[in-house]
Amino acid sequence: MIIGTWLFTKMRGELVGTDAEGNRYFQDKRVVPGMRRKRWVMYNGVAEASRVPPEWHGWLHYTLAEPPPAGGLPRQPWQKEHLPNLTGTDHAYRPPGHSLSAGEKPKPAYEAWRPG
């Protein structure tokens, strides 16, 4: 956590809610006529934007006027669980033939050009 963000949050932040990962969401205490109130998140652990669930992302970007209820919004049967960005981890997607994926490497579908 950056000391400036922490100090700004202590002085001007109003806690709005917390998500399942422990991230805390704030908005500015001050109401300025004609202006939107500033909204921000204090991450629990590593500051990785993909750890913000969709319902809180909507609130942070003023798509939703009200913060999501405790426990989140009702899930549709077709919705998957939220996953953070797994790039750079052992759980990252690697297509068949990737140099780091397990198993036999497929033969290229082309022959390399050789001069002469």
Description:
The protein is α+β, with helices and mostly antiparallel strands. The protein has one domain (1-102). The protein is 15% helix and 13% strand. The chain has two helices and three strands, in the order H-E-E-E-H. The protein has helices at residues 3-12, 54-60; strands at residues 13-18, 24-28, 39-42. The termini are far apart. The mean pLDDT is 86.
Keywords, separated by commas or semicolons:
116 residues; 3-stranded antiparallel sheet; 15% helix; 2 helices; alpha+beta
Structural class: alpha+beta
Calculate Rg over CA atoms. Answer: 22 Å
Number of domains: 1
Helical proportion, percent range: 10-25%
Write the layout of secondary structure elements.
Layout: H1 3-12, E1 13-18, E2 24-28, E3 39-42, H2 54-60
Antiparallel strand pairs: 1-2, 2-3
Structure in a nutshell:
This protein is of the alpha+beta class.
